[in-house]
TrEMBL record:
SUPFAM superfamilies: Cadherin-like (SSF49313). This is Sarcoglycan alpha. Its main location: membrane. One of its GO terms (cellular component) is sarcoglycan complex. Residues 27-131 form the Dystroglycan-type cadherin-like domain. It is a single-pass membrane protein. Component of the sarcoglycan complex, a subcomplex of the dystrophin-glycoprotein complex which forms a link between the F-actin cytoskeleton and the extracellular matrix. It is found in: Cell membrane, Sarcolemma; Cytoplasm, Cytoskeleton. Coiled coil: none annotated.
Length: 398
């Protein structure tokens, strides 16, 4: 019974897997140089019917990559604050990214271990509308990147910025987390955020207020820790805390001059009245220099050699002094040791030698004679008055 209870959901899961429809496909059209953001929805990941609200407690994570590649294209970034928050794909395509890119997104339901796949077809084209030559970047310290990616806060930022800039057409060009630009993860204190860089473009020139904030004077004040020169009312103020020291303005209204193509010359310099090379060099004699350089060290070396040779050969204290300084008994010991060594060497050379005297027993019985003992070394007979109590002891050594 219990086994059946386990198997039924498994089978149901398998059948659902078999009947799984093709990966869901979405077509999107980012524009080169304009900000693009796509929210990864949780509903398809949970495979809920349309009308059922997503339970916020279900954790879902995503993995996105360019089709046929392990990671995302360079311009596209992925972020998700936690598995219970939505995921975002965002970035700003560059001219090299023009064309079609297919992003595959796998969503993992962390409760049921269910996965779903999604395909995003990105058709990257040129932006419509006029060029946006006036571009400004702001560092917003009061927000994390996920908090400005949804469309509501982003458009609210643009509206608020419109109060500082001529109410012209403002467009988002790029949004980057400050962490990606060398920022630090803040301490987990209420109200501290990572910060986010927001880049905005417009057709109309910068207002004097913005120009003043980004002027070198203002930067100099910032470097000294003083507030920057903000001459107008900060319309972003209560909601967005902009770091006015980190505003950068780029004016692309004047097209950059094309680099001149260098024309190859004939390789010969033109005549230059200020260039006067030294015409003739004085003849110089280097013989003395060479001789001094070579001979002096040679002479010194020779002198030292001679000195050393004299000390070594003529001032040597020789054998005579050594022999005189050694006591006679020491000389005698030395002599004996040498003689014994010599004997051993000779024995080693020839195997058929009589046993060395040092290995013979001291006394031996001479067979067939009435005097029983003689000294092997001297050949002399023992005097007859030798104490006969010692004899057997010596005989045993035969
Ligand atoms: C957008 O910002 C990121 C991070 O600073 C940068 O790498 C990228 O080049 C920017 N994109 C454009 C189109 O400026
Ligand atoms: C902000 O600007 C100041 C001065 O220009 C600079 O020293 C600092 O590094 C900038 N901070 C960030 C996070 O870019």
């Amino acid at each position: 019974m219990a086994a059946a209870l386990v198997w039924i959901p498994l089978l149901a899961g398998l059948l659902a897997g078999l009947g799984r429809p093709e990966a869901q496909q979405t077509t999107l059209q980012p524009a080169v140089g304009r900000f693009f953001v796509h929210t990864l929805a949780r509903e398809p990941a949970l495979r809920l019917p349309e009308h059922v609200a997503v339970p916020p407690a279900v954790p879902v994570t995503y993995h996105a990559h360019l089709q046929g590649h392990p990671d995302l294209p360079r311009w596209l970034r992925y972020t998700q604050r936690s598995p219970r928050h939505p995921g975002f794909l965002y970035g700003s395509p560059t001219p090299e990214d023009r064309g079609r890119q297919v992003i595959e997104v796998v969503a993992y339901n962390r409760d049921s271990f269910d996965t779903t796949q999604q395909r995003l077809v990105l058709l990257i084209g040129d932006p419509e509308g006029p060029r946006l030559p006036y571009q400004a970047e702001f560092l917003v310290r009061s927000h994390d990147v996920e908090e400005v990616l949804p469309s509501t806060p982003a458009s609210r930022f643009l509206t608020a910025l419109g109060g500082l800039w001529e109410p012209a057409e403002l467009q988002l060009l790029n949004i980057t987390s400050a962490l990606d630009r060398g920022g630090r993860v803040p301490l987990p204190i209420e109200g501290r955020k990572e910060g986010v860089y927001i880049k905005v473009g417009s057709t109309s020139p910068f207002s004097t207020c913005l120009k003043m904030v980004a002027s070198p004077d203002s930067h100099a004040r910032c470097a000294q820790g003083q507030p920057p020169l903000l001459s107008c009312y900060d319309t972003l103020a209560p909601h967005f805390r902009v770091d006015w020291c980190n505003v950068s303005l780029v004016d692309k209204s004047v097209p950059e001059p094309e680099d001149e193509v260098p024309t190859p010359g004939d390789g010969i310099l033109e005549r230059d009245p200020f260039f006067c090379p030294p015409t003739e060099a004085m003849a110089r004699d280097f013989l003395t220099d060479a001789l001094v350089t070579l001979l002096v060290p040679l002479l010194v070396a020779l002198l030292l050699t001679l000195l050393l040779a004299y000390v070594m050969c003529c001032r040597r204290e020789g054998r005579l002094k050594r022999d005189l300084a050694t006591s006679d008994i020491q000389m005698f010991h030395h002599f004996t040791i040498r003689e014994n060594t010599e004997e051993l060497r000779q024995m080693a050379a020839r195997r058929e030698v009589p046993r060395p005297l040092s290995t013979q027993p001291m006394f031996k019985v001479r067979t067939g004679q009435h005097e029983p003992m003689f000294n092997v070394r001297t050949g002399r007979q023992l005097p007859p008055q030798v104490d006969s109590a010692q004899v057997p002891l010596i005989l045993d050594q035969r």
